[in-house]
Write a structure and sequence with these properties.
Helix content: 25-40%
Number of helices: 7
Strand content: 25-35%
CATH superfamily of the largest domain: Vaccinia Virus protein VP39
Number of domains: 2
Radius of gyration: 18 Å
Number of strands: 11
Strand order of the largest sheet: 3-2-1-4-5-11-10
């Protein structure tokens, strides 16, 4: 999986202002009758908002740097985070959760079927009876791939800094995409990094859920629970134990 330590200090420049998913996950957390776990909580974009809303929230992440940023931000807001350095594939917490969330497409950083199944089974073990798992990721779009893959694209611009990506298939049969990213200011590159993701289609994920022991779920086409009808929509999953 991607090592986000290298970009922990600049991550919020680009993503702290991303808020389209927050009302959905906050609503799910407030409905949960028990503690909530955020997997891949990062610098706290979502997690700190859960704490501010009074949610009994816990978090795990694989990056020390991202968690250090989260804890610094929490201290500045007078919040006391309950976060831990852990891998979503094999973490062990002495607690069952009413809700586990994996926002912001973090599940796609699992590149193999074995890793994807290991994570889903680990989530299921940590869910209380009747608990729910909620996560989102994009629907692979042939139109988007043909238009943007193989050329550098400006994703975000904030305070004079641009985030640029060059995406390409590293392993097309296994649906593995490599993104080479860089932050640019005044025409100069100030930070470079790479990460990989694995495309997952709707029916493919349903098979993974069955193999992981789940049998009941809903998939929407957006954070307002729209019907999923197009590859242009975000897949938003709500899975019950």
């Amino acid at each position: 999986m991607a090592n986000y330590d290298r970009i922990a200090k600049v991550y919020d420049i680009f993503y702290e202002s991303t808020t389209s998913d927050i009302p959905f996950y906050l609503a799910e957390a407030k409905k949960a009758h028990g503690p909530v776990l955020e997997v891949a909580c990062g610098t706290g974009r979502m997690y700190l908002r859960l704490l501010e809303a009074g949610v009994d929230a816990y978090g795990i992440d694989l990056s020390k740097g991202m968690l250090a940023t989260l804890e610094k931000k929490a201290a500045a807001r007078g919040l006391k985070p309950k976060v831990k350095l852990a891998d979503m594939r094999n973490f062990r917490l002495n607690k069952k959760f009413a809700l586990i969330i994996v926002p912001f497409r973090s599940f796609l950083h699992l590149l193999t079927i074995d890793d994807q199944l290991a994570a889903l089974k680990c989530f299921r073990r940590h869910l209380a009876k009747g608990g729910k798992l909620s996560l989102n990721f994009f629907y692979p779009s042939r139109e988007y791939i043909s238009k943007d893959y193989g050329r550098e694209v400006q994703r975000i611009k904030h305070n004079g800094v641009e985030w640029r990506d060059f995406s390409e298939f590293e392993d097309e049969p296994d649906q593995i995409v490599k993104s080479s990213s860089r932050a640019v200011k005044n025409g100069k590159t100030i930070k470079r990094w790479e990460f990989h993701i694995a495309f997952i289609y709707k029916r493919e994920f349903e098979l993974l859920l069955r193999l992981a022991g789940f049998s009941k779920w809903r998939v929407y086409g957006g954070f307002k629970k729209e019907k999923l009808v197009s590859s242009k929509q975000e897949m938003v999953w709500v899975i019950e134990k």
